Amino acid sequence: MGLPACFRGLALHLPDTLILDMRKDLHRVVAIDGPAASGKSSVARELARRLGFAYVNSGAIYRAITWHVLQSAIDPGDTSGVGQALESVTIACDIVNNESRILIDRIDPTDYLHDDRVNEGVSHISGVPRVRSVVVQKMRDYARSHNLVIEGRDIGSVVFPDTPYKFYLNASPEVRLRRRAAQGQRDEITMRDHADSSRLVSPLVVARDAHVIDTSLLTIEGVVNQIIDRLEQKGLHVPS
After folding, report:
1. Cα-Cα-Cα-Cα dihedral of 212, 100, 229, 178, to 10°?
2. Which residue ranges in the chain fall short of pLDDT 70?
3. Domain boundary assignment for the chain
4. Which residue, of 168, 185, 197, 211, is most buried by count of CB atoms within 10 Å of its CB?
5. β-strand 99-104 against 90-96: which pairing, if any?
């Protein structure tokens, strides 16, 4: 069953004690973290298909909020302005065809999520505590109704720290730059890595007990097969 959860950002700026309580009664979650262009999205989507789980791209929610902030002519570095923008917007999230979908005030921003301006601003937006509260809550809501493969930067370390299925994908900066260029995107990988790993709120780290995979020389299928082998070792049944 899809999850037609609509929420306003201010209402979901919740205390840590309440957020911890919300980890109860969650479905199975495979957490895949890693830096930009490490292969997370392609691997997570294919893995979800193989497992029969729903695929959630946490970065798409941050990018949708970034797009809205830019459309509102707010500087992504203006924490106060970003917070005000969240108070006045309705974000609707659901699962459609086994993948997450995000609407901002009933508008689907999917076609704009990888614009250069969004690429440049998303690290600032994702570091705003109020934004992270909203997105973390949404991801936990997804897990209340679905088995998930979810990818991001703090999925195993912060959002679902209790899942036994944690993976961290990485690749050399050169490989990641080539991947971005092949996608027709311009992205300052080094600057993005520094911003993601040095932010005060939920920095990019290798989660405790995460299985690390270097994807530099691997195909998507090769990475997925490694993950499935690991999941089976941990007792998760994988459909043949």
Report:
1. -50
2. 1-25, 186-187
3. 5-10+27-232
4. 168
5. antiparallel
